[in-house]
Amino acid sequence: MDIHVTIRIVVIALFAMFIYSRFAGVKGLKNLRTEQFKDELKTNPNKMLVDVREPNEVKRGYIAGAVNIPLSQMKQRIGEIPAGKSIYLYCQSGMRSKQAARVLQKNGYRELAHLQGGIMAWDGKLSK
User: Fold this and answer.
1) Is the predicted pLDDT of residue 39 greater than 60, yes or no?
2) Is the residue at 104 inside a domain?
3) Rhodanese domain: which residues (predicted)?
């Protein structure tokens, strides 16, 4: 087999693995639609709501009660998220909140949920 063909196959395989790792579901993560997310926030007293967007995005509006811990800082600030609470995550579209859930899961967090579609799917009130 030609070396160039082999290299192309390897590059395509690595790219496919990268795409899969970014878009694949997170085992144990609850994917909640807006109404489900609202209901759980209202009824679960043992929770923490985390906005994983960057501060400049949060300025446009956030869900009341959310703590801003950007995905880019999650590993350094993980100590701010108490163990033993249900963690509700959201971002702009739902992609970064899944990535944040992976980071939290690797660090022993188990009660994780995220807002499907992110704040773009949110139809509730936003604080500024």
Assistant:
1) yes
2) yes
3) 43-128
